[in-house]
Specification:
The structure is a homotrimer of 347-residue chains.
Chain A: E1 7-12, E2 21-25, E3 28-35, E4 39-44, E5 58-60, E6 63-65, E7 72-73, E8 79-81, E9 96-97, E10 99-102, E11 105-109, E12 135-142, H1 146-153, H2 158-162, H3 172-176, E13 179-185, E14 188-198, H4 202-208, E15 214-223, E16 227-236, H5 241-244, E17 251-263, E18 266-275, H6 282-313, H7 325-346
Antiparallel strand pairs in A: 1-11, 2-3, 3-4, 4-9, 5-6, 6-7, 7-8, 10-11, 12-18, 13-14, 14-15, 15-16, 16-17, 17-18
Helix pairs in contact in A: 1-7
Chain lengths: 347, 347, 347
């Protein structure tokens, strides 16, 4: 079961090129393409004639042409051409999904079209601010529910165990004993964590050359259904980052994480990492991307293994621990939105 | 659901060699082998002792020997030898299927044995007429219902879209605006199409060196349940091919297409292509085979993708178009035969 | 359905190294590891916190630590550490299985822990008697019920057909016409076979250089649920091996075969082969291991193919043959144990 009336990240802007793109979202087969008149468009990936997937077709002036028998659909999903046939029946149409492209991201609305409100989409100006925040992005396929990946993102204790050799380096207890602040909203939550006077992890040292201990922060802003905006960084101890807010210099990265359900048991993990240091050095971009990618591959192994067990045994008999509170708050947010939607549909 | 009382193509003659051949037909596991006394034989691929597949056995003088414990079955499916045992119980037998081998083809009858009438098998003398029709053949596995491949074969409009770079080259409209004649029989149909005064496709030009425009024909003779005998060719405009039947010279190929269901959602696509030009040139055989193989791989991609969508969503909401009439007539033929068979069985 | 109150072979001793080992046994996911205090330990392979498989974790002083959030379980399955949490709820525990390690083998008890009786485990001293019985061992994965592999081991007639080119060489009838003695016990059976005055198979000749015909024996001691202790050998005709028990010299191998169910349709086949000749020659060990491995791969092909047919068609319509008696006796033993267990559980 998915939240229907919500914006899901469907693709990176640069994934929409010369050929249509097939992507299953919330268990619906969708074809995305860049319409010559309308820009990014999302249609049902199934021709209404003989069910051929439209992603095997091609982009033409009037819209998207089926690769089997040449029917053409415009950006609204209406069939506007049937080869060698003058009359086009009115029911020759497929579903079209509202789409908004901004900040290098292509968002899709999977619910009722008249409720799609583009102002609800998160802002992420860093993607277009290459002077201050050079970045690199990708998308990973995860064979696990998007909720397990969200659990993973909003749960800090795993870093010391899953990422012991990468960003989780140093004393495990330092991670667990962070100063935390958690605030909730109807559509999400924000968690801020500080690790004061700790050893910087190897990747931080490699990036900016820390010589001593640091104050380290991490902010996680979850926006339902699937976004986690992450800002992490560290500056030298003594600069007053925690006490008076001076986070200048040092190490700082912004990671956008967006999980989009493919099926109940698989998802797409879109992420970008932008660095707020050595902005003129392409090597810095490459280094941070590589480090984060390694980390996320460690997470992927774990959540996919976890998914297999949950699919077989369910959640019966599981216990909660104190450090679950953020992910439990996230789950509650999602459940509330699902419940509200069920009620609306029921009316 | 398959037509049971029908001849299905089980194998090419040259597939029956030193070892038995396993092939699932109409969802029944069959083992084919060349019996030393009886020639081509088809048995249930399952020993009646411990269920070992007989295709792992070997051909012996008395028939086919199970590779597990050495039981031997003759061409009627009767067990004629149990190692170290004198008495052979009467129920030690497996199903045997009527088989006819002709024209390099091995046909199997999947229904009631006493209704198998070899005169109903199509004639295809070209396979043995190598002087006039040199040919090459193969079998492809398709992960789609045999009916989707038949749809594909009997539907001309797809050539311009699926095969735009191969035999479908030239003006798409020329394909759609062909002169067509369609005649029906209880066991099939015949479609004849003419494209007059058109540019020859690249493969035709490569084969015989056309310099100008051509008159082009294609005949499709569908014989239920799975055969489509195809004759296509082209001669220079002005020779009178359409008006007075002079199809001498120029380009001419005969393609035998036989679809045999493996399961409800997969099939075997047996095909041969024979060329009626440059008969002494092995390179011509190689060229035409390669060109047709490329075309059929394009079809395979499309019908397999179509099968996935149909398996998920069924046919609900689909529309028909004018150019569906031949494939719809084919489907009607198959449905009529299934209905007739259901009635006979019901009596 | 599996016999629950029984010892199953879970692993070779040398499989328990630095990292935990995941193995599904009787359809339960188990993690095996060598506890720093307790030696070999088997736990449910599923953390009671968020269901992460524990085989992704690591061995620590207190037991096994989950690789996701760091919970630690001791050898009884009790959680003894939750990071950053003082109180550990009593229900924070997972299932622990009785384990016994001996003769290089790690045995697991899948039933009620208080009924686990280590004296019921087979003795196999040859593994630790390297002076007289040098050996090599491995484990194969078989995509078939463990019962089909047991059938295979206790059925001699197949050797002439499945292994015609290896140990089954020579006259097929010699295999079938062996002198056999079969004795039964509640927990198993023992079959002894003699082939007198026969040609030695190629592998025997290669091993010890037989020049003429031999007397050949094979003993199979089946112990439910999954062990077959095999002793086979041959000496020159005339030495009196059969008549007066002189089996000195010649060729002699001991093969331990243990089948452990993974699922209803798959199993692990643990086996070792020890040779009682040329004990100082590592090449002899390598040769006999290679020969047996080739033989068992032939069996694997057959039982996996058989499994597919049985899964599709069941056992309906199958017939028995005279040479089935040993395997039928084995099946009866297993059925009796299952029935006894069902009765106990029912009480």
């Amino acid at each position: 079961m998915f939240i229907r009336n919500a914006w899901y990240l469907a693709a990176w802007s640069d994934e929409l090129g010369a050929a249509p793109l097939a992507r299953r979202i919330c268990n619906q087969p969708v074809v995305l393409y860049r319409d010559r008149q309308q820009g990014a468009v999302a249609l049902e990936d199934r021709c209404c004639h003989r069910s051929a997937p439209l992603h095997l077709g091609r982009i033409v002036d009037a819209g998207l042409q089926c690769g089997y028998h040449g029917l053409v659909f415009d950006h609204t999903g209406r069939c506007v051409e049937i080869p060698a046939q003058v009359l086009i029946p009115d029911r020759a149409r497929i579903r079209s999904y509202p789409v908004v492209e901004k900040d290098q991201l292509v968002w899709i609305w999977m619910g009722e079209a008249d409720r799609a409100d583009a102002t609800k989409i998160i802002d992420y100006p860093y993607h277009d601010d290459r002077a201050n925040w050079p970045h690199r992005h990708t998308v990973m396929h995860i064979k696990a529910s998007y909720l397990l990946s969200l659990d993973n993102l909003l749960d800090m204790t795993h870093a010391a165990y899953v990422h012991g050799n990468t960003v989780g380096g140093g004393d495990p207890m330092s991670f667990i004993q962070a100063k935390e602040e958690l605030t909730s909203r109807p559509d999400g939550l924000k968690l801020t964590r500080w690790l004061l006077d700790v050893d910087p992890p190897p990747t931080y040292v490699k990036a900016v050359g820390f010589k001593g201990r640091v104050d380290r922060w991490a902010e996680f802003n979850f926006v339902a259904p699937g976004s986690v905006l992450h800002w992490a960084g560290a500056v030298n101890v003594g600069q007053g980052a925690y006490e008076n807010g001076n986070r200048e210099g040092g190490f700082s990265i912004r990671t956008l994480n967006v999980l989009t359900p493919e099926t109940e048991h698989s998802c797409f993990y879109f992420w970008s990492v932008a660095h707020g240091y050595r902005q003129d050095d392409p090597e810095a971009t490459a280094q941070v991307f590589k480090a984060v990618a390694e980390t996320f591959l460690e997470d992927k192994v774990m959540v996919e293994a976890q998914q297999l067990r949950l699919a077989e045994f369910g959640e019966a008999g599981l216990i909660g621990v104190a450090n679950d509170r953020t992910r439990i708050q996230m789950r509650r947010t999602v459940d509330n939105l699902l419940a509200a939607e069920a009620q609306t549909t029921g009316t």
